[in-house]
Structures are given as C-alpha cells and as structure tokens.
C-alpha cells in the first residue's frame, strides 16, 4: 500500500528523534497533568483486582449515561455499546465488519489519516468530498450534496466523518450534519463518526454528534476514547456505540482479537466519565492561548495562511506558496530541528499544508518551536 503515513515516521533519522534539541510539533495531546482523581482511579482499579479478563458492565452503563446526558440519545448498554482499545482500534473494528474488498467509503479531504488507511488496508476504495479549509469549514452544503450524488454507488458502504475534524480543527455545524444525514439515510449509508476531540472545542463553537440528528440514531456508529479530552492515550480504552446488529458483529470481531480491553483501564474510565469535568475548561483555556499564538505566528510568515481552528490542538497551515507540505516539513526538520506533519498524510489535497500541533509540548517549547519556524521560513520567497 502506498501512503506517506506508512513510511513517514520511518524516514525521520534517529539522530533527529534522539536529539534533545528536537521540538515535536507533530503530535497531538496535552502537556497538563492528569487530574488526581483519574490517577487514583487507576490505582484503585488495580488494588480492587481488575487484572483478569472479565466483563465490566458498569463501563457500558457509564457510556450510555454519557450519551443520554451529552446528546439526549438513549443507547442500550448491553446491546448497543462495546469497549475498544482506543479510537483507532475502534475504527478498524467497525470498518472491518462493514467493508469487504471492492467496497467503497466516502470521507472528507483533507481528512484524518486512518479514514484513508483503514479502508485501503481492508481492500476498499476511498472517495472524497473537498473540505474547504480556506473558508474555515466545509464547502457549501449544496456542493456537498452534489458531490455526494456523484460519489454514491451501489458499492458505497459507509461515510466516515471525524468531528471535530482532524487535521482542520473544524466543528461541523448542526444544520450541516442534519442535511448530510438526511441525504445519506435516503440511500441507507451508515455514518461512522470519530468524535475523539468532542470535548476540545473552543467557545463559542459547540459540538453536535451525528447520532443526535433527526432519524440518525440507528444509522450512526460513534467511536471515541479517552486519549485527547482526558490525556489518557496510554490507557488504550475507548468505546463504540451504534446499532445492535453492528455491535453484535463487533462482539464476534473482538472474540477473534483482543477479546476485551485492559479491565483495570475500563474500571478507571468509569470514574473518568462520572467524575468532575471542570478541569477541561482550564485545559481548553490553556490550549486556546497556544492556539492564538500558533495561528498568529504562522500567519506572520509571508506566503503562509492559517485559519484559527475551532477545536483540537493543532493548526493546518497552507504553505503552497513556499513549496509542498512535504518539502516544508523536511526543511523544518533539517534546518530548525522542528517536527511538523506534512499535509499529504491527510488526503489528495493535503500536499499544500503542514499540520502544527501546539497542544502536546510545554508552552515554552511550542513558543521556541514557533520562533524557529518563523526564522526558517520567513527568508523564503513566496511564489504565486
């Protein structure tokens, strides 16, 4: 399979990865300390004996409560929820039960890397709808529907949406989701929604899940985890909520693979879902400061344009007047010891971009990295 993400990290020299002077702005996440109650929950889970392979039904009930409280949607914890080993594993599992070789899926471009890689790995073809980053959001809804009409075929098996979007940081509006859902429902196409960044949304923007759109309750599979909103990526725990027939198929899938995620992590996740959430406001405020600084720094470079993201902890900058995203990323690695992600990881239109993550490294390191980026790229002469 040919895709930049398969070999991109292998091409980063070990002397760069091991250099203490290298600044990593290619990874998302957070620098903040995980709240005490979450760390205590993990320790308590081990002390309580959650070390064997065993069902943790209270986790499913906590997920169902979350859907009721956050989206006003009722899901059956026994038949419509299943835990997974993080959101990436959840996407692979869901698409594995939906797709066969020769099938087709539709997603946005640019879009999340796994939205392309997983279908291709399963032998499916990916069709794309352009996401107009320059306008800060999707291309007009009429254009979207016209493009859908062109792409839908008898072999279309799923529409993949990452909301909030990675890499653009766009939050899909409710009216857009309603219209998209209505069009897909007409052809019986299920929506697979990765909503791992649902809590990392900057005011005044608000997250709406496709599962809460009219008549989309039984046409949507939601996948999420505790990696981004709660900075617990190492737990490798997530959840899938969707129609009972898909969850039933996923039970068979997991009987053939991991069977169940780490049971101590599942027990910990219950306390995360039911515990205090006020720390998220502080984290979002801290990320917001870095969002503003990063966007401003990138826009100060002649030839670069960067929209203010509405969610997530990354910016997508158009560097096409200076060169391809891959060229600029390599230039920054070689000359500035700053790692960013080339945009060709994110679909056919991505080569004009670089993604710069401001949310994982400490703020002082991000600021130092931005200074290096500005100093390195401001001397380049923009083309037309």
How does the SSE layout of this entry go?
Elements: H1 4-7, H2 14-17, E1 23-24, H3 36-47, H4 57-71, E2 81-84, H5 87-98, E3 104-109, H6 113-121, E4 125-130, H7 141-151, E5 156-162, H8 174-186, E6 191-194, E7 220-225, E8 238-241, H9 244-255, H10 263-274, H11 279-299, E9 305-306, E10 314-318, H12 325-336, E11 338-339, E12 341-342, E13 353-357, H13 363-377
Parallel strand pairs: 1-11, 3-4, 3-5, 5-6, 6-7
Antiparallel strand pairs: 2-8, 7-8, 9-10, 10-13, 12-13
Helix pairs in contact: 3-10, 4-10, 5-6, 5-9, 7-8, 11-13, 12-13
What does this structure look like?
The chain has about 375 residues and is α/β, with parallel strands linked by helices. The protein has two domains: about 5-35 and about 280-375, Aspartate Aminotransferase, domain 1, CATH 3.90.1150; about 35-275, Aspartate Aminotransferase, domain 2 (3-Layer(aba) Sandwich), CATH 3.40.640. The protein contains 13 helices and 13 strands. The protein has helices at about 5, 15, 35-45, 55-70, 85-100, 115-120, 140-150, 175-185, 245-255, 265-275, 280-300, 325-335, 365-375; strands at about 25, 80-85, 105-110, 125-130, 155-160, 190-195, 220-225, 240, 305, 315-320, 340, 340, 355. The strands form three sheets. Strands 2-8-7-6-5-3-4 form a seven-stranded mixed β-sheet, with helices on both faces. A four-stranded antiparallel β-sheet has the order 9-10-13-12, with helices on one face. Helix 5 packs across helix 6. The longest helix is centred in the C-terminal third of the chain and has 21 residues, at about 280-300. The protein is globular, with a radius of gyration of 21 Å. It starts with a helix and ends in a 7-residue tail after the last helix.
